Amino acid sequence: MAKSVDEFNKKRLRSSNITVVISIALVLFLLGLMGLILINAQKYSDYIKEQLVVNAYFDENYDAKDSVKIAKLEEETFKKIQTLAPVKKATYISRSMAAKEAKKSMGIDSDALFEENIFPSSIEVALKPEYVDPAKIDEAIKVIKSVPGIIDVKNDSTLMVDVYNNLSRILKWIFGFSILFLVLAVVLINNSIRLKIFSKRFIIKTMQLVGAKRRFILKPFIIEAVVLGAIGSLIGLLALFGVWYYFTNQIGSAFVQDNQQYVWLVLLVLGVGIFITVLSTIIATWRFLKSNVDDLYYS
After folding, report:
1. Which residue ranges does the record assign to the ABC3 transporter permease C-terminal domain (predicted)?
2. Spatial distance between the Cα atoms of 127 and 123, rounded to a whole number of angstroms
3. The pLDDT of residue 22
């Protein structure tokens, strides 16, 4: 009889541990998924911002005999612009390249309509994402325009402002959902741990009544919480990266190439899983340590 009761208690304990681990894994999977989306959304936002360029133009009026001197000046100007703080990438566009681009955009193959050197040479500048901010774009343009040799800088400011505002709005929504999932993770994991500790409330009170110190009683529960939190986190991470690997293979893009961000995400998910599990265990166990014996029947 005692053996069957002992086996029943072991099965119930095993079932309780499995339930807690699955709960932790599912919650952290969703939390990690929001983290991946947030990381990639930020990188994609930066990529979109870098596609918004400004064009710095050289003087198109100069004497042919000064062509060598002008070419040297344009080269020096190009190198100078590359070193400016707001500049992410700069591309030099010669007069002939500008003419070819114009012909291509107008669908013209002949040189009969205009001379090849009718367009001025220029520098196409991709700004760093932080300088696409509407509050800083004018400052960046002034810096570029101050470089000797540049006579005009043009950009589609309206398009830049619209893209910036839309991207910022999307990122705020994603960040908000990430915070919501973090709160849900805390609540759901805490509830799972409380149910597990609740099933052991009589054992906790019995140990206390026979003289065991609170630290001694807490220790095995904390160790178990660390193990369950780690196992649940690892299962959630394996499922997360398995789904993400399949998704990126299907669309043919790996998105973020910076592995360091993935490492930080893994550490964050693992840390959150263990921390919430341990904290919930301490709070739930402490509650029964402070309660009276009669309260155990009505908790």
Report:
1. 176-292
2. 12
3. 83
